[in-house]
Structures are given as structure tokens and as C-alpha cells.
Design goal:
single chain, about 450 residues, alpha/beta, nine-stranded mixed sheet, six-stranded antiparallel sheet, globular
Length: about 450
């Protein structure tokens, strides 16, 4: 357990963006003998391969002895998390302060992102085909960034607004630097005045040019993500909890990857799928709503079957079993009125299975059939895995979705499974060490289902 938790926290520290997670997963998989499918002409039982998409989604496959037409055992999770993204034209100066203009990504409480130390992670792509990886704010000697807020002495009007309104999305701009105000120049010398006004911005751009060798115009083709600066930490005197950014849903992604690396496929082919864009509806080429997974499996079939068949692809997907691994809201004793306690998930209660997610009247849900739930329960009991069945909260309180219903469109059995999280979607989220251990054991047991 101690080694698993240590490796999990390291994964969170090194994987604060989708690209960073994919890079780690490739490194972990390669150490266990996985190869890029592009380097393989043919595949047979026992072979291990991975497939990536745009460096932001990845699938691992270990080929079993049975035909793929009989289906796979799939662990699916997402590796994107709520954050702030830099806008296309992000750097501007206002008075003597230079800012980074941002656009928030996913469902956040905007006020939670002010006055925190923040880091910038991402990539800047140049027209000549080269790219530069950017990471500022994580090392001990790095500067960090921050979004300022109004002091309480002047916040009477702000405090009258609703919590969703008193911090505007357009105000979530990072402070990149500043210069001391200069004495006003003669109004007649307007060129000097304009040059002085942009001096702070020029200093910032010169520093970026010196360190990373890109120009301001290269930010037009950049992907910069703003995340909380700092490492995952043990929480509580008993160290029973973990405080970290991005545990929704990297807690499920990491334990799924670790499970497939620590098991061996038997009859059925085993798969772990880690996708992007779940937090904004699973859209785009790297999201589950696309043909991403279908295309990956088609690529796999072309290298395993004697002749490729669209019917075999359809049968493979339809006959598969999947745990859609995503987190659930942990019961919060200080806000008990939001939960149906008898149907809530608890920190330390083990794996949380959700028969359905969605909002209110199950909108956007995958409603798992009871036969499959019984099969999963049996596998968990045989492996002595602790689990609980739960909903997100009270029926009319709200809700949320996962990638489950996107997978279910292929006709496969899909059940949501994850860990309970306190402060979900906050910059720092809380999970239980016990639950991380149990979902790892759950994932190993599921991959062995016949």
C-alpha cells in the first residue's frame, strides 16, 4: 500500500496536464514491455502495445488468447482536469502590471482560484515545426503566479454578488510581473510614454525569449495550462488522506494503468483507455464522444486478425466489459443536506460503483443492467475488494456525467466505478489512501473477469 500511494502521488506531481500524463504512462508501460503499435506489423497473444492520439489520449492493450470478437475487459478513465487555459493572445500590460489572460476549462468555482500559487504547464509550437515544453512554478527555485482579489476593506459591493458572480471569468488573469511606476514624462513626448507603458510586458517577453526561445506571436499556437503549484501531500495527522490537484480523474487513471501493468491477460484481451476532454463533454478528437476508441480497436484488429472485418470490430466492442472509472462525491458531514446518506459514498468506504450518473432524471446517464452489476460484485467479493454503491447527491440537487454512456453506445456492458472525493473540482481535492488501494485491487480483479 505504501509503495502504491507513493507512486500515485508522484504520478500526480509529474502529470498535471494530459500530455504529461500520457508521457508518464508511456514510460511506465515501456518499462513493462509495451511497444508503440506503429512499430508492430503483427500481434498475437501475450503482446503488449499502446496507441496514442495527439499526445493527449492513450490506450494500452495486452492481447489475450481468445479472438477479439469475443470482447475485451476495459478500464476507462479521463486524464483532463478543471484548470485555466491561456487565451490565444494572452499577455497584456495594464498600468505597471503584466498579466496572462485566461479562459477557464471545466466546471470550477471561480473564486477558489484566486490568491493561490499557480504554475504554468504546456507547449509552444513554432511555425518551423519545432516545439517548446513549458513548466514554470513547480521547482523550489521557480517563481509562481497568482490571481489577485479585492481586499475585504473595499469588497462591500463584491460581497453582495452571488458566489458564481463575484469573481468574473474575465478577471481570472495571472500576474506575470510588474515594474515600479515611473514619474510621468512630458505629455509632448508621446513616443517615450508609450514605450514606457509597455516596458513591463517587454521585460516578461524578453525573459520568455531568453529561457524558452519563442516570440510573442508563437503564443498563437500554444497550449498553456494554469494549475495549482505544488506537490501532492498527506492530509491529516494519521496521513489517511491525500490532498492534491487533479485527482478527478487521475486517481482512476493511475490505478487502472498500474493494474494492467501488474496483471497478465488470459483469454480476453485487457485494455486501459485514458481519454481527454471529459470535463467539457468528451468532445474533440481526443475525447470519448469521437471515434477515438473505435479507431484504436480497428487498428488493433488489423494487426491481430488474418483479415480485417467491420463485423469483427462491432462484435469486439459489443461483447466487451468496461469499468468507466471516474470519481464520486464523498459524503460531507458539514453539508449533509446535499446527500441521501443511505446512497452516498464515504471516504475510506472502498470502491464506489454507480449504477447510473447523469443529472436529475438520469439525463446523460448510462444505466447499467443488474446482471452485469451482479457479475462485478461477484468478482469483487472473490478478490476481497471493499466496495459501496452510491449516487452523486440528492436527486434534485444536480448531478454529473462520465464517459460511460459514450462507451455504452457500442452495446458493451459499462459500469461507473471510482473513488470518493471531497472538494471535487477544487484546486486541491481530497481522497482516501484506503480507497486508492481498493480501486487498484478492484481494477486487477475486473481485468480477470471471463
Amino acid at each position: 500500500m505504501d509503495a502504491l500511494i507513493k507512486n500515485y502521488k508522484s504520478f500526480l506531481d509529474k502529470g498535471k496536464t494530459e500530455r504529461e500524463c500520457v508521457n508518464q504512462i508511456i514510460e511506465m508501460a515501456a518499462a513493462k514491455g509495451y511497444k508503440n503499435i506503429e512499430d508492430c506489423k503483427k500481434l498475437s497473444a501475450g503482446d503488449k502495445v499502446y496507441i496514442t492520439k495527439m499526445n493527449k489520449s492513450i490506450a494500452l492493450f495486452e492481447i489475450g488468447t481468445e479472438s477479439l470478437s469475443k470482447g475485451m475487459n476495459i478500464l476507462g478513465a479521463h486524464i483532463d482536469s478543471p484548470r485555466l487555459d491561456a487565451k490565444p493572445n494572452p499577455i497584456y500590460e495594464k498600468e505597471n502590471i503584466t498579466y496572462l489572460n485566461t479562459h477557464y476549462y471545466g466546471g470550477i468555482k471561480k473564486y477558489q482560484w484566486t490568491t493561490l500559487p499557480l504554475a504554468i504547464h504546456g507547449i509552444v509550437c513554432k511555425k518551423n515545426g519545432t516545439s517548446v515544453n513549458v513548466e514554470i512554478g513547480e521547482r523550489d527555485d521557480d517563481p509562481v503566479f497568482c490571481i489577485s482579489d479585492i481586499l475585504p476593506h473595499l469588497a462591500q459591493d463584491q460581497m453582495k454578488d452571488k458566489a458564481s458572480d463575484f469573481i468574473k471569468g474575465e478577471d481570472l488573469d495571472l500576474i506575470l510581473g510588474s515594474i515600479s511606476p515611473q514619474k510621468k514624462k512630458d505629455e509632448k513626448n508621446k513616443s517615450d510614454k508609450k514605450e514606457e507603458k509597455l516596458k513591463s510586458k517587454k521585460i516578461i517577453l524578453d525573459l520568455l525569449k531568453s529561457k524558452y526561445d519563442f516570440e510573442e506571436e508563437d503564443l498563437l499556437s500554444a497550449e498553456l495550462e494554469i494549475v495549482p503549484a505544488g506537490k501532492a501531500r498527506d492530509l491529516g495527522l494519521d496521513r489517511s488522506l491525500i490532498l492534491a490537484y487533479g485527482q478527478d480523474d487521475r486517481s482512476c487513471a493511475f490505478t487502472s494503468i498500474q493494474a494492467i501493468l501488474d496483471t497478465k491477460a488470459a483469454g480476453r484481451t485487457n485494455c486501459v483507455l485514458c481519454v481527454d476532454k471529459e470535463e467539457i463533454g468528451s468532445v474533440g478528437a481526443t475525447g470519448m464522444a469521437s471515434n477515438l476508441f473505435e479507431n484504436m480497436v480497428a487498428d488493433l484488429l488489423e494487426k491481430t486478425e488474418t483479415s480485417y472485418s467491420e463485423l469483427t470490430l462491432r462484435r469486439c466492442l459489443s461483447n466487451s466489459n468496461m469499468l468507466s472509472s471516474d470519481v464520486n462525491a464523498a459524503y460531507d458531514p458539514l453539508n449533509a443536506g446535499l446527500y441521501d446518506k443511505d446512497n452516498a459514498s464515504f471516504l475510506g468506504g472502498g470502491v464506489t460503483f454507480q449504477k447510473y450518473t447523469g443529472s436529475r432524471g438520469k439525463s446523460g446517464a448510462n444505466d447499467t443492467n443488474p446482471e452485469f452489476i451482479a457479475k462485478v460484485r461477484n468478482a469483487m467479493d472473490e478478490a476481497n475488494v471493499k466496495y459501496q454503491l452510491a449516487e452523486l447527491g440528492k436527486v434534485d440537487q444536480g448531478g454529473g456525467g462520465t464517459i460511460a454512456y459514450h462507451a455504452a453506445k457500442y452495446g458493451m456492458n459499462v459500469l461507473d466505478a471510482g473513488v470518493a472525493v471531497l472538494s471535487m473540482h477544487a484546486p486541491w481535492e481530497i481522497t482516501s489512501c484506503e480507497d486508492i488501494t481498493q480501486i487498484y485491487e478492484c481494477n486487477k480483479a475486473f481485468l480477470g473477469i471471463k
